[in-house]
Structures are given as structure tokens and as C-alpha cells.
Amino acid sequence: RRSPGRRRRRGPAAEGSSPRDGGSMRCQVSVLYFARSAELAGLRSETLSVPREITSLQLWEEIVKVHPRLAVIRDQVVFAVRQEYVLLGDQLLVLQPGDEVAIIPPISGG
Amino acid sequence: MEESEDVPKDFIKLKFEKLSVDEVSELVVSPYCGAVSLFIGTTRNNFEGKKVIRLEYEAYTSMAETEIKKICRDVRQKWPSVKHIAVHHRLGVVPITEASVIIAVSSPHRAESLEAVMYCINTLKASVPIWKKEIYEDEYSWKENKECFWANSEK
């Protein structure tokens, strides 16, 4: 739908301005699944293309689109983005290509 | 005589093999310390009347090691006299009565190492991305530490 010409208009100056079509700049992130979330998703890791600027809740919704069975644990998980915990909510994430995003169900170490 | 004996060290290991109390305590022993305090977490054979056959652990290994390093940093801020800290956690299958975690801390006097060990295990349970699956006779269950602030949250 988008021609290469339009992509050229989104240069460095476009960063920080609100995307007209809601997160049109995307990047590939490495999504990791653990414990119950790995069972529900059916895999332990994959690469997904997601908007670079996105709230943590929107990121969850992107992932649930790919793995609808994850919806049942929405109220019990947090993310770890670049190995820092992030609650599902309004927090704005600025993702870089290759970033690790992990689904973290309630922990039980020790 | 090596000056490196003075340098406080953190020994952090996640491994699939059986843990050794001797190995972990020897890591933290120091001629400058009069106390070594230990915590050993072992697997119980029952939960709410159900017989536990075994436990299985998995971890987000790189982040777990980073979080344990943060715990060690916190320990040294709170108890500056602590010398060495060792945290070994087992992954994979852990049979009943075997250790899933061993924490050892050395300090010149006993109060600091005793308090630091308690802080380590309590904080590990709240913040380190490791998961335990309890296997019963007919089913299994992913456990959730009560210390985990995002468990059982209702929105």
C-alpha cells in the first residue's frame, strides 16, 4: 500500500512527531516466552515486527493478535524490555531493532 | 600473598546439575571473615494435600543473572562489611529433598551475613525471572511467589 517514495519522507526529522497512521515506523524485536506463556503461545521465541513507538499495552495486544491464547494471562504478566520490567499499561516504549521483549508470568524462583 | 583475597566477590550460577552445599560455602569462606551464613531451598513432597512428584525450573537466564547481580549490589550497600556472596540456583528437574537454591554470604561478624542471606532469598523470590513447575500425579501447576507483585492482580 505504501510506495517507497513515501518512506523517504519519514527521515530523522519525523522522529518524535505523531505518526499519521499510528506507528508506521516498525522494527523487528525478539519476543521471548516463558513458563505458562510459552505453553499458550506454543513456542519459546520468535522475531516480530512491531511499531517502534508503542505503549506496553499496545505491544501486548500486537502479540495477542499473533497468539490469541495468551489473552487469558493478560492480568498476570509483565514485560521485560531490554531486561527491565515494564507493566502492561500506558508506558511508552521506544523500541530498537533486535530489542529483547520477554513475556514474564508470575515468578517462582527460590 | 595475594592482595586479591581482600576483594569482595559475587558468585552467581544457574545450572542443571545437582547443587553442592560444600562447593557454595567454600566459595565465600575468607580468612577475614568469622561468619558464613547459608540458606538452602529444598523441594517439598506435598502441596495442599497433593503429592509432588518433582519440580522443574526454567529461567530467563541472562536477566536472572543480572537481577541477582543487582541483589548482590544492594546487599553490599546495606551491609558494607559483607565479604563474598554466592547464589547458586538449579534449573531443570529437581527431585524431592534436593536443593533448588543455595545462598551463602560471609562477613567478619555473624549479624551481617545472617541478615544478608535472608534479604537475598526474599528479594530473589520477588524479582528474579525464574519459574517453578510443580508436577503432581495427575496434573502440574506453575507456582507463583507471593512476593511477586504482578501475580493474581485483578483489573
From TrEMBL, chain A:
Biological process, per Gene Ontology: Mo-molybdopterin cofactor biosynthetic process
GO cellular component terms given for this protein: molybdopterin adenylyltransferase complex
GO MF entries: nucleotide binding
Gene3D superfamilies linked: 3.10.20.30
Pathway(s) annotated for this protein in UniProt: Cofactor biosynthesis; molybdopterin biosynthesis
Record InterPro entries: Beta-grasp_dom_sf (IPR012675), MOCS2A (IPR044672), MOCS2A_euk (IPR028887), Mopterin_synth/thiamin_S_b (IPR016155), ThiS/MoaD-like (IPR003749)
Alphabetical UniProt keywords: Cytoplasm, Molybdenum cofactor biosynthesis, Nucleotide-binding, Phosphoprotein
SUPFAM superfamilies: MoaD/ThiS
Keyword hit for Electron transport: no
Basic residues bias spans: 1-11
Region (Disordered): 1-24
PANTHER family referenced in this protein's UniProt entry, alphabetically: MOLYBDOPTERIN SYNTHASE SULFUR CARRIER SUBUNIT
HAMAP family referenced in this protein's UniProt entry, alphabetically: MOCS2A
Protein name listed in UniProt: MOC2A synthase
Organism (species): Poecile atricapillus
From TrEMBL, chain B:
GO terms for biological process, alphabetical: Mo-molybdopterin cofactor biosynthetic process
One cellular-component annotation, GO: molybdopterin synthase complex
Molecular-function GO terms, alphabetical: molybdopterin synthase activity
Keywords assigned by UniProt, alphabetized: Cytoplasm, Molybdenum cofactor biosynthesis, Transferase
Superkingdom of the source species: Eukaryota
PANTHER family: MOLYBDOPTERIN SYNTHASE RELATED
Stated name of the protein: MOC2B synthase
Organism: Poecile atricapillus (Black-capped chickadee)
Record lineage: Eukaryota, Metazoa, Chordata, Craniata, Vertebrata
Gene name, Swiss-Prot/TrEMBL: Mocs2_0
